[in-house]
Amino acid sequence: MIGTDITDWAAVEGAYYAGMGSEAFWLFLSIALCAGALILGAIHEKKAYSKAH
């Protein structure tokens, strides 16, 4: 990468995990984002379906 000493993603991932303490934070964050996307998508589809009929 330009301007850094990072040569692979292992160095980047290690810094993120060390800063947060564990993988649990990232697991729950990804679960929350996926659940949010599903809920918002379902709400949007319900509104679009009701407008079409």
Can you give a write-up of this model?
With 53 residues, the protein is an all-alpha fold. It has 2 helices and no strands. The chain has helices spanning 9-20, 24-52. The N and C termini lie far apart (53 Å).
Report a brief summary of the structure:
This protein has helices at about 10-20, 25-50. The protein has about 55 residues and is an all-alpha fold. The chain has a domain at about 25-53.
List the helices and strands and how they pair.
Blueprint: H1 9-20, H2 24-52
What shape does the CA trace take? Answer: elongated
Number of strands: 0
Considering DSSP H and I runs of 4 or more, what fraction of the residues is helical? over 70%
Q: Give start-end ranges of low-pLDDT stretches.
A: none
The radius of gyration is: 19 Å
Global mean pLDDT: 81
Contiguous helical run count: 2
Derived structural class: mainly alpha
Strand content: under 5%
Termini separation = 53 Å
Largest sheet: none
H/E order of the elements?
HH
